[in-house]
Design brief:
Length: about 280
């Protein structure tokens, strides 16, 4: 099974690119972030014409997450239990929950597509929200793995954290800003430190960015960030055979500012009997 994550930065704007890439790269399951539309606005037909089912979670023109899969998706959950909400200028337990998480099970593999809050600025209420969001997600992840350690589990998406200095082109540029602050990095490390998840891509692809801002010629200068990750449980990591970052998808007409991250799994799936033999 080939699974991928991609912050598409508006699926309606880039539907042609996304579907073409899915078919060309023979991807079985894609988790998308920043779809920027409601489910009824999602360009489902283009995906279905290419042989993909779609599950989407979006509330307005911001945020939004989705899955496209050749295989049936079961146990679909929109928002993880205890997911914090946010509303600028307001505090309390009953804030609206944003469309930032969707979970599905595909052939026994549990996958989440996640769009972690940006944080905006250190000290901003959105920064506190981001840290709380990650802490709650870590707690849920521990519960999921404890309940079913044998189930391959992956949290994929735009984490909006650069955990290492080498994950940004010049860490001095980011001093005092989000994405590289120690509390954010500690929140990211908590998933690994507790033995919950591991970055299944970095051992195979140790270098490379996944995001380049549209401004200031960031991409031609390769001034990027590595903030998109596939974090897998031990059961998931055990079946990973390969991984890749598709840098070329940042090129061409109207690209997303993020690129796909792909992981290959050694699984027997119901697609295997349908694929042509290659000699």
């Amino acid at each position: 099974m080939r699974v991928a994550t991609w912050n598409v930065n508006s699926v309606r704007t880039r539907v042609g690119r996304v579907v073409d890439w899915l078919v060309r790269e023979d991807v079985d399951v894609l988790g998308m972030q920043e779809i920027k539309c409601k489910p009824e606005q999602f360009p489902v037909q283009a995906f279905e014409d290419a042989g993909y089912h779609v599950e989407a979670h979006g509330l307005n023109q911001w945020n939004g997450v989705a899955f496209a899969s050749r295989l049936p998706m079961a146990d679909v959950i929109r928002d993880f239990p205890g997911q914090p909400g946010f509303l600028k200028g307001h505090e309390g337990p009953d804030l609206p929950v944003e469309a930032r998480a969707i979970g599905v099970t595909v052939d026994g593999v549990r996958l989440w597509s996640l769009y972690v809050p940006n944080g905006r600025d250190v000290g901003d209420p959105h920064y506190t929200y981001k840290l709380d969001w990650l802490a709650q997600l870590a707690d849920r992840t521990a519960e999921w793995i404890a309940a079913s350690p044998e189930t391959p589990l992956a949290l994929m998406g735009d984490w909006n954290v650069a955990p290492l200095d080498t994950d940004v082109w010049d860490v001095r540029v980011f001093e005092g800003h989000t994405h590289v602050s120690e509390p954010e990095r500690a929140a990211f490390r908590a998933f690994e430190a507790a033995g919950l998840l591991q970055d299944v891509v970095r051992p195979i692809v140790p270098d490379g960015y996944t995001y380049w801002d549209y401004k200031q010629l960031r991409f031609p200068r390769n001034e990027g960030m590595r903030i998109d990750f596939v974090m897998g449980s031990q059961a998931f990591a055990d079946v990973v055979t390969d991984a890749s970052i598709h840098r070329n998808e940042r090129k061409g007409d109207a690209p997303s500012d993020h690129v796909p991250v792909v992981v290959d799994l050694d699984l027997d799936t119901s697609l295997d009997d349908d694929r042509p033999m290659i000699f």
